[in-house]
Amino acid sequence: MKPLRSGVTTGLCAAAAAKAATFSLLTGREVHQVEIQAITGEVFKMEVTDTIIENNGIACAVRKDAGDDPDVTNGLKVFASVEKIFRDEIVVDGGEGIGRVTKPGLKIPVGQAAINPVPLNMITMAIKEICGLMSYQNGIKAVIFIPGGEQVAKRTMNGRLGIVGGLSILGTTGIVEPMSKQAIVDTIKAEIDVHLAGGKTNLLIAPGNYGKQYAQEQLGLDIKEAIKCSNFIGETLDYLCQNEVQGIMLIGHAGKLVKLAGGIMNTHSSMADCRMEIIVAHAALAGADRQLIAALMECVSTNAAIELLNQAGIGSAVWGSIGQKISFYLRQRTRGSMAVEYVVFTQEHGTLIHERLERAAATDQ
Asked: Is 321 strand, coil or helix?
């Protein structure tokens, strides 16, 4: 199999664009390619796609290449517009298509452009490098902007994080790893931070949209502030345990949450797809015969297995048994640091398990 191709972050693109624009501003010469170093030390040669002469400065653009990562910002042009200011300072702000932070809890103060600290430092250092080469003594103001960024941002989690009006300039290394697990986990943590900063100590967690929909339609819960943890249930629980969270409600489809009964906290099928094995083990404990066990092992969906269990009259017993193991592993993972209420369901069969694990007393933790 061909290895997946890495890409570059919006942060590295912004730094490259700012470097190119500063060079053009201070030399009067257009630049078509710029070298920029990622935090890892790797040097990238990036094409400058646009150079625009403005009233007070110059804007340059670099096109975002996400490699083989399914990034919604792939192909967008990241611009940096620079102008001289007569004080010894580098000022970086966001313009068109760059979001603004409206909620506390992120690493960026409320009211500022959504340019994360590492990219902000990369942009600043790139500008300073050119200023040093040109022996320029005064300051530079840079405005990062992405045409179309506001529309693309609607396909991201920015709105849930309180970032409005556009995209975030992101990146911790400058390099996008394909299908980056860490990027997803970092986004989940950021969303949790926003809720905690808002004073919330009881949170609603769902692996995906099915859980959110069930919470709203069947349980009557407000899902506007539900946190989607994707397959990373373990990492989400770990982060919640590190913070002042009193309790959570975890709501998920049986096809995912049944894996928790095996101690599997990353529920992606590429990590472990043992739904039927777990169901079969608990069916055997409930008295299933060899013929039923064989039929269960042939099922391709959790719903198909539920049908067989119900026909055999052992559905309730099996899900009760599975619930005991889910409770066991959730207690192990959270160490009693918070109350955990969880709901396992399917749309066709409703709630299969609904349990609440109380928070441990302070002396027991």
From this structure: helix
Structure tokens at 360: 């441990």
Q: Which residues contact 188 (CB under 8 A, 6 or more apart)?
A: 227, 228, 229, 230, 232, 235, 236, 239
pLDDT at 82: 98
Q: What is the pLDDT of residue 161?
A: 78
Is 81:54 a contact under the CB 8 Å cutoff? yes
Which candidate, 249, 105, 63, places its Cα nearest to that of 191?
105
- d(C-alpha 242, C-alpha 97), whole Å: 34
- H or E element that contains 296: helix 290-297
CB contact at 8 A, 94 and 100: yes
Spatial distance between the Cα atoms of 218 and 351, rounded to a whole number of angstroms: 9
Q: Which residue has the tokens 């970032």?
A: 163
Q: What is the DSSP letter of 38?
A: -
Q: What is the predicted pLDDT for the residue at 178?
A: 65
Length of the chain: 365
Please tell me which of 147-151, 228-232, 244-248 the model is most confident about, judged by mean pLDDT.
Answer: 147-151
Cα 322 from Cα 305, distance rounded (Å): 14
Model pLDDT for residues 145-173, shown as the tens digit of each residue:
999 999 999 988 788 778 999 999 988 78
The fraction of the chain above a pLDDT of 90, given in percent, is 75
| List of residues 6+ apart from 300 with CB closer than 8 A | none
Backbone angles phi, psi at 240, to 5 degrees: -60, -40
- Cα dist. 290→54, 274, 275, 279, 280 in Å? 78, 19, 18, 14, 10
Reply yes or no on whether the pLDDT at 316 is more than 60: yes
Cα–Cα dist 364/331, whole Å? 13
Q: How far apart are CA 163 and CA 8, in angstroms?
A: 22
Looking up tokens 């430092």, which residue turns up? 121
